[in-house]
């Protein structure tokens, strides 16, 4: 059980790291689209929009920030890869089926024991009730034992 918890902790940690990676990716796309200037990439396609210089970063700063964002993505991807590699190998399907079958049998056994215990409790309750009724009915006479 403790081992399963640590696996769940790793899975939760992996989910958190994937969420962080998606956040980094989203921030990267936002930065790249918001702080870049429009450059002509083909002579046949003219630039149709111009940004004010205060709306985009200088090419050197943009390049440095872009490299930093790429490094952040790489580091996060490597962390995720490490977490994936640390996950246990999945249990073979037949072994899972056998384990589930054993758990079902244990559940059935426990249920049968519970039913027997309830029946014993009801039987004891009935005997005690009869005994007390007999005692009250024969308050003046001798008490008979009920079996």
TrEMBL record:
Keywords, sorted A to Z: Activator, Coiled coil, Nucleus, Transcription, Transcription regulation
Record's keyword annotation contains Transcription regulation: yes
One GO cellular component term noted in the UniProt record for this chain: mediator complex
SUPFAM superfamilies: Mediator hinge subcomplex-like
InterPro entries documented for this protein: Med7/Med21-like, Mediator_Med21
Primary location recorded for the protein, binned into one broad class: nucleus
Taxonomy, superkingdom: Eukaryota
Pfam families assigned: Med21 (PF11221)
Coiled-coil stretches noted in the UniProt entry, renumbered to this chain: 93-120
GO terms of molecular function: transcription coregulator activity
Compartmental location: Nucleus
Biological-process GO terms, alphabetical: regulation of transcription by RNA polymerase II
Subunit-level organization: Component of the Mediator complex.
PANTHER family listed in its UniProt record: MEDIATOR OF RNA POLYMERASE II TRANSCRIPTION SUBUNIT 21 (PTHR13381:SF0), RNA POLYMERASE II HOLOENZYME COMPONENT SRB7 (PTHR13381)
Reported function: Component of the Mediator complex, a coactivator involved in the regulated transcription of nearly all RNA polymerase II-dependent genes. Mediator functions as a bridge to convey information from gene-specific regulatory proteins to the basal RNA polymerase II transcription machinery. Mediator is recruited to promoters by direct interactions with regulatory proteins and serves as a scaffold for the assembly of a functional preinitiation complex with RNA polymerase II and the general transcription factors.
Family that this chain belongs to: Belongs to the Mediator complex subunit 21 family.
Name assigned to this protein: Mediator of RNA polymerase II transcription subunit 21
Species this chain originates from: Suillus plorans
Phylogenetic classification of the source organism: Eukaryota, Fungi, Dikarya, Basidiomycota, Agaricomycotina
